[in-house]
From TrEMBL:
Family designation: Belongs to the glycosyl hydrolase 3 family.
Gene Ontology BP, a term: xylan catabolic process
Function field: Catalyzes the hydrolysis of a non-reducing terminal alpha-L-arabinopyranosidic linkage in ginsenoside Rb2 (alpha-L-arabinopyranosyl-(1->6)-alpha-D-glucopyranosyl) to release alpha-D-glucopyranosyl (Rd). It is not able to hydrolyze alpha-L-arabinofuranosyl-(1->6)-alpha-D-glucopyranosyl (Rc).
Protein name listed in UniProt: Exo-alpha-(1->6)-L-arabinopyranosidase
Highest rank taxon of the organism: Bacteria
Keywords: Hydrolase, Signal
Amino acid sequence: MHEPFRDPALPLSDRIGDLLRRLTLEEKVGLLHQYQAPVERLGVGAFRTGTEALHGLAWLGPATVFPQALGLASSWDADLVRRVGEATGDEVLAFHHKDPAGAGRNVWAPVVNPLRDPRWGRNEEGYSEDPWLTGVIATAYARGLCGSAPEILKTAPTLKHFLAYNHETDRCTTSSNVPPRVLREYELPAFRPAVEQGVAVAVMPSYNLVNGRPAHLSPLIEQVLRAWAPDDLLVVSDAYAPGNLTALQGYHDTLPEAYAHAVRAGIDSFTQDDDRSQDTLDHLRAALERGLLAEADIDRAVRHTLSIRFRLGEFDPATPYDDVTDSVVNCPEHQALAREAARRAFVLLRNDGLLPLTGVRRVAVIGQLGDTLLEDWYSGTLPYAVTARTGLAERCETVFCEAVDRVTLTAEAGPVTADLAGGPLSVGGPSGQAAVSAFDLFDWGGGAYALRAVATGRFVSADGLTLVNDQPGPNGWEVRQTFRMEERPRGTLALRHIATGCYVGVADDGVLRLVDDADQAVWLAMEVIRSGTEQAARAAAAADVAVVVAGDHPLVNGRETEDRMTLALAPAQDAVVAAVRAANPRTVLVLTSGYPLTWTDDAVPAVLWSAHGGQEYGHALAEVLFGDADPEGRLTQTWYRSEQELPDLLDYDIIASDATYLYFRGVPLHPFGHGLSYTTFEYANLRVHVTGDSVTAEVTVTNTGPRPGVEVVQFYTHQQRSRVKQPLRRLRGFEKVRLAPGESRTATLRLPVAELAFWDVTRGRFVVESAPHRLMVGRSATDVRLSARFEVVGETIPPQSGPLRAADHDEYDAVTLVDETRTDGEAVRSDAEGAWIVFRQVDLTGSTRCVATAGGAEGGMITIRRGDPLYGPALATFPVPRTDRHAYHAVTAPLAAVTGVHDLYVVFENDGVTLTRLDFGAGA
């Protein structure tokens, strides 16, 4: 007779409980690593978390490659994204059935970090700067991944990365400063829908700290994430993040302490040391022996892990997905879906009537990206590649120009030459073979260049310390094929290897090798023997239309571990765009990138953008350019005119810094939601009704042009009066409509009034204020066609009287949010003399004293002022005692005679002071 845990007829909780009771403590500990040990006596097999599936199955060989996640979101089509998720889940299963150990069914996707700053190196992995839209798209993709069979998961989707993670610079040691409103209104909402609807069954914390505490130890895992989840939620660590708790972050002194804290905070699976689990398990055993963990803590974590395995059907006699075979991998249906997804993701940024192309016989396809498709770090392996050149060549006569400079590099001892077998580069080399001394120079922007040897068609790379020419292009986790150029005297330059920081020098045998000392760098004279810009202009002039395909390299222009410093298109590519447009006014700029770009030629008549579009990119591009399909994509991020319009990369307070489309007050290059059509649309008859707990809006949209078209009708609201700073606009819904010429349709928004709430720091909850609102409908966040006012009856936030948590202030200057204790809470630390926080509308009636709970390594002084941080009358002054970190003292001071409601400024007279709370009371 089978054990009860193998009986699908029993309730899931009973089955999990039965297996849990049968496991020994040692066996349970073995389930807490990414590579879970088998329990052979019970017939429980090995299990591994973590298969990458961000936009198709990745890292395991050729599989269908769909557009990058940013591109999928740009379709504004949740059903399409769900179908991509379904196809990806099928291919994960196919690989799993062939190799269960190599392809696990716990997939690490989707990424739901809101795209707060486009300079983030991993921008292409996310969906949108809007948390609500991110939630919609993420839920759709996760729903596809987890499948439609009741009770049984196809795969187990994992949301990444919790929490406030939008930078790579020092990502393991920096802390994201996230005030309560930003946390509750911006960061958390992106995670909630997929978790709450049960389609994301796991979450991965991020590498960074949040408000001074490592994200892997966040109390929000238990307090928020698991409160949302309808079932057990698995929490897996990011790779090697547990070790950071003592090493890079120094948050705990020993790994048993750190790992025990992680388990208690909610981590169920340690992704540490790859498949070498012994050290991690030893640290957990030590934590148990020292009393830092109880068996109940282990049981709780193991239950979460086992829940996922049961829901995947591992212990069932059969599942609906057992018959999925490798015939689904890159099958015709998935190829068609990849083409559809790529086509619907294109965004038409500008068009003076040049598009769609008509009467075109000869097209010049120009640019570094014109005849190549690039994989990103989380791509699958392309099974085939339909490039822009290939796709357009199927429609008309094409001529191709890569538009890169061909150069020679000459040292004092002679030219740099390539080895015909792909071996070391050297100075000198065979005479009479000019080809071996020629290189094509690729400018990927941000000062990053790559060199391709003309003689071999292979890129220059660092093999150890030796320069060779044997690579197909920039590739790998540590890209070793890119260089910076540093000026040297007499017009020469030195090459600096980006990955290592070393310089290119010449060894005694003439071979180019990397050297540490800049003084040992070889000085090279670069001569352009063929101008890519001039070649591109000639090709454009001889064609009916020029299509310049420009953009980024996903492994070079920002990626995991590396942010961008600029949004500008690479200078050499930018120059090609200008030269081509000057040679042929009928020029289309096709941008392909994982983030917003800027370029200098404002006269380009048509600009089309997409994220890197996967294997069917070229077919999709041709269909859009020639008008087989209307451009359906819309931007899910603001395209700024320059990175100068952005706050500091580490400034996560979008409210204070006026960041994202929600608060940005400038005029962007292209607004959130922007995207043109080949036809025109008219909006009319906007009706808004507030009935009970719901706001309903309806608008009539008509295709007034001569062609069928697709419109994304976008609804935004703005609260016009409030106690707090409100967004200028917030996306509340959208409807994608397909209309024939002259056809009309009604687009409808149904919005619960509760969704108009914001986080009230005075009472620690969401609140809907009584206030007028404006509903705006249109084609983008700033292209508003109609608007209407409506009133909402809610609350009036009363004055606050205390106690006041320091972290719940209204505004601030020169302070940082830090962890109040190692396990919970936030406090405020001053970063400079005169730093301050303000509490608006504090009722001091009857208050005669104030108690400040504070501390600091050097002690200090706090002053409470009324009305102004510099000139307001001082109401109380507190000496702050010297304390250890996470230690505080309650200091009482008399309060100057005052009554009524006032704005209170808490002024820190010196830096390094930490305040947790203020209490006002009567009496001595």
